[in-house]
Amino acid sequence: MAYIANTLSNLIHQTAFLNLTWGNYLMIVVACIFLYLAIAHDFEPLLLVPIAFGMLLVNIYPDIIAAPTATANGGLLYYFYIMDEWSILPSLIFMGVGAMTDFGPLIANPASFLLGAAAQFGIFAAYFGAIALGFNGKAAAAISIIGGADGPTSIFLCSKLGQTQIMGPIAVAAYSYMSLVPIIQPPIMKLFTSDADRKIKMSQLRPVTKLERILFPIIVTIVVCMILPTTAPLVGMLMLGNLFRESGVVRQLQETASNAMMYIVVILLGTSVGATTSAEAFLNATTLKIVALGLVAFAFGTAAGCWFGQLMKIITGGKINPLIGSAGVSAVPMAARVSQKVGAEADPTNFLLMHAMGPNVAGVIGTAVVAGVFMAVFGI
């Protein structure tokens, strides 16, 4: 009987029920809410499902992301997370994005670069806000990139600046806001545009030649990486993926980068990001500040894009719909779709998607450039 009692006692004490804190239970509830939003309401499920499931796993079994010791191997998701720290997964994500994305709207309308640049003001607003809240310069820079709505760049910069202790909250905030673009952006866009603004129809973009499409990624890589060499892992992979797409001679590489590889990397990145949200690491004042600053940055970036869109509307005599400025945050193609959706609500015959893709792609490049500027400022 003593043997049976000891066996049952050991079994009971090995269950998660007796080892979890109230914080773990709270994070499990949050994970379930994220899964509900992703599955029931289709809020970027490719991002939110793996993140939420990683969050669920780590709060039931914290050792799944434990670092290796002299006597034990690390947890499964620890090795996924190391690829985040080494900037491998963010760079591969950029390659996949480049292989999937049509840069034609940006090439056809180079003024889109200005709208993409304007949306980066949210990053600098968050940077100074973080400094005011007591974060050091490197931590403030890492936090501020959330304003670009670009998860891979947030992880990349956080790693390069040595701020891995706050990488989890930064990555979760960045990816959560990317997923919630359809909820966060429309009220801000409507606040800074009138009904007449939203009904503006833009003329069809000019055709872009094959030569232009091929030269664009090569020229951007040379120019940007010569000025800011530290951006090469992101900008270089983005442009390489796009060159796969536009060259027409490596179709197998383009299909692999945009499909099989992209989905594998999303699984690894999403679950490892979610696994950084253990209750002990996530439920603290620092995390709350990071989440709040990220929301401020994202909102300010959206507003700045709309403001600059208004300026371009005036300069062009009403030919630019200011809604496309909000797509300058680099959540591709989600932000462009939101511009299209809000414009179509005002006028169902209005088609802004391709026009919004220009600032959207420019925002991806712009966020990587801002990350390079921060690295240069801090001597990385």
Q: Determine the fraction of residues in helical runs and give it as a percent range.
A: over 70%
Biggest β-sheet description: none
What gyration radius follows from the Cα positions, in whole Å? 22 Å
Low-confidence stretches: none
What is the 3D shape?
globular
Multimer state:
single chain
Query: What would the average pLDDT be, to the nearest integer?
Result: 89
Ends: how far apart?
64 Å
List the secondary-structure elements in sequence, H or E.
HHHHHHHHHHHHHHHHHHHHH
Number of helices: 21
- The proportion of residues in beta strands is under 5%
Structural class: mainly alpha
Q: Would you count the extended β strands for me? A: 0
Describe this structure in words.
- This protein is mainly α.
- It is 71% helix and 0% strand.
- It contains 21 helices and no strands.
- The protein has helices spanning 2-14, 22-40, 45-60, 76-85, 88-100, 104-108, 112-118, 121-132, 137-144, 151-160, 167-179, 181-191, 195-198, 210-227, 232-247, 251-258, 260-274, 279-282, 285-315, 334-346, 353-377.
- Helix 2 runs antiparallel to helix 3 and helix 8 packs antiparallel against helix 19 (285-315).
- The model has no long low-confidence stretch (mean pLDDT 89).
Key terms:
mainly alpha, single chain, 71% helix, globular, 380 residues
List the helices and strands and how they pair.
Layout: H1 2-14, H2 22-40, H3 45-60, H4 76-85, H5 88-100, H6 104-108, H7 112-118, H8 121-132, H9 137-144, H10 151-160, H11 167-179, H12 181-191, H13 195-198, H14 210-227, H15 232-247, H16 251-258, H17 260-274, H18 279-282, H19 285-315, H20 334-346, H21 353-377
Helix pairs in contact: 2-3, 3-11, 3-17, 4-17, 5-10, 5-15, 5-16, 5-17, 7-19, 7-21, 8-9, 8-19, 9-10, 10-11, 10-21, 11-19, 12-19, 12-20, 14-15, 15-16, 16-17, 20-21
